[in-house]
Amino acid sequence: MGCGPGESLMAAWRSTPGMALPTDGWLVPSDAPGFGIDLTRDQLDAAIA
Question: What domain count does the chain have?
């Protein structure tokens, strides 16, 4: 995830189930396996296509 200087991270955010976002300078990742990010093989294939 990334954005330009002065831009909100929310502008670069894309909906990924389980993805943690910083709030007030804090990031609390999930304790689920794989950092808690829940992706299917189809979603991964679509992302690299």
Answer: 1
pLDDT in tens, 1-48: 567 787 776 666 666 777 777 778 888 777 777 777 778 889 888 888
User: Does residue 43 lie in a domain region?
Assistant: yes
Residue 2 within a domain = no
Domain enclosing residue 30, as ranges? 9-48
* Cα separation, 15 vs 48, whole angstroms: 16
pTM, two decimals, is 0.37
The two three-digit tokens of residue 9, written as one number? 């991270």
